[in-house]
UniProtKB/TrEMBL annotation, chains A, B:
GO molecular function: DNA binding; DNA-binding transcription factor activity
A Pfam family of this chain: MerR_1
Domain of life, per lineage: Bacteria
Keyword RNA-binding (UniProt): no
UniProt source species: Micromonospora pattaloongensis
Lineage: Bacteria, Bacillati, Actinomycetota, Actinomycetes, Micromonosporales
SUPFAM superfamilies on file: Putative DNA-binding domain
HTH merR-type domain residues: 10-79
Record's protein name: DNA-binding transcriptional regulator, MerR family
Keywords linked to the UniProt accession: DNA-binding
InterPro entries, per database record: DNA-bd_dom_put_sf, MerR-type_HTH_dom, MerR_fam
Amino acid sequence: MVSVVQAEAMLTIGRLASYAGVTIRAVRHYHQIGLLREPERDASGYRTYDAAAVVRLIRIRTLAEAGVPLARVRALLDADPETFTAATTEIDRQLRAQIRALQEHRRRIARLGCGDSLAVPEEVVDYLERLRAIGAPAALVEAERDAWILMAARWPAAIPAIMAEKVAQLANPAVVRLYQLIGRIAENWRDEELLRETADLMSELFEQAAASGELDRQDEIMPDAAFIRLMDSFADAAHPAVARLRELVAERGWTGWTRVERRDP
Amino acid sequence: MVSVVQAEAMLTIGRLASYAGVTIRAVRHYHQIGLLREPERDASGYRTYDAAAVVRLIRIRTLAEAGVPLARVRALLDADPETFTAATTEIDRQLRAQIRALQEHRRRIARLGCGDSLAVPEEVVDYLERLRAIGAPAALVEAERDAWILMAARWPAAIPAIMAEKVAQLANPAVVRLYQLIGRIAENWRDEELLRETADLMSELFEQAAASGELDRQDEIMPDAAFIRLMDSFADAAHPAVARLRELVAERGWTGWTRVERRDP
DNA sequence: ATGCGGGGTTGACGCTGCGTCAGGGTCAAG
DNA sequence: CTTGACCCTGACGCAGCGTCAACCCCGCAT
């Protein structure tokens, strides 16, 4: 008679799942990976569960919802209290790490949201703003942005110092004039007169930089010839005027572009 | 000549990946899903990348690391500022939700860590503690715990009220005596004398409960005959003495176990 | 008897974002 | 000529199920 009572109290997979608050598919998955014992079947092949299965399933669900990987759930369910406590401590550590990572993501997303700063460090964003402010053409600012993305990827640590220097340079009226000339080149890049004037100005600025020791510092900061060539080719690809300017500047005794050096005699 | 410079500045997939800070496998994956254009190949079939690919790859990485699903990255990379801002706002919402969920997990894990509260609501943990305190045998406490896991799964909202009632009952000296008798049954469950004494006491308690209207409230709280049968079968499975006690209690005019009713005449 | 709706059964593919073989070819250096 | 560090394609694997497909079973209304 007891067995009759039990038979009446048996559950189908659907009722088991709904009592435990999981999907039928999840229950079968747990069977597959051996988390939950396959129960007896009735005459027509249906799985027949008892109350103990509900309890075990709820335990599984509790751990799984707490973010415990199923592989660990198996061990945890049959663990002694000490092992269990140790494991939960460990899992809590992982959860904290995940939360920190997500918060970091939020910070980055927030930074992305404001302005064109996709993948660009803050200092560079600031510098680009100032470039726009002194009237540099939009296309140049975009090209600069991409170039600094590359630089920041290669030497992230050097970016703050370089940017500080760049921003300081913008106080130099000659530099401002340079960007204004570039603005005019953007409108008419076949004007040889204009290009020559710009090259003269650049040559002058390089002279100043050499005198202040800036060019030597560049060599220290960027000791990777292959990467410098990459940056140069990137500049060349940005606009045809760049190649012409490089020629003109070379005539005035300077080689390179990303990293400028006085040409050996 | 420009093309020679470009050729020299071309990158293999490995150098591209290292500049952008991703794995080679990731780059190939982005090719596969169309996030990054497949570049030209050299004579031996190697992919040859330019600097622009590095920039695009860094953009992809930035978004991906910020937790943006790759499917969205594709759209975001070419989006106008408004769409972009809207999307980042949306993504930030999702991140917040994820963080909240993980924090909830941490809370739960923390609760799991202390004591036997795996999947048991707090109120029940408290009640089980008190049961132990009055000397209930460990096996009974475990059985009770599992039974309350089931109850909490079926009627979570009712648990606080039920537990308050249960705790209050423990102030009744007769109830304390009941659990002490059960403790003795746990040691020798074939002692008919003891079982009879226990059944008498239970009958008496049921009488009190019926008088105070508790039994009627039970009917309201648990209107699910099939589930009640499940709980009963669970109790029967817990210990052979349960079945015998049910018989003896039935002789005294009570049917059921999880939900007790005066037997119809 | 028959049809219907709502259970159940197994099996297999899909999703994310790559990691990780397997089984090759290429390139520069010793 | 070998070695080691690259590159190539193709394919499986991972967690945790969701979601068909194609079929069986049961109770109820017709």
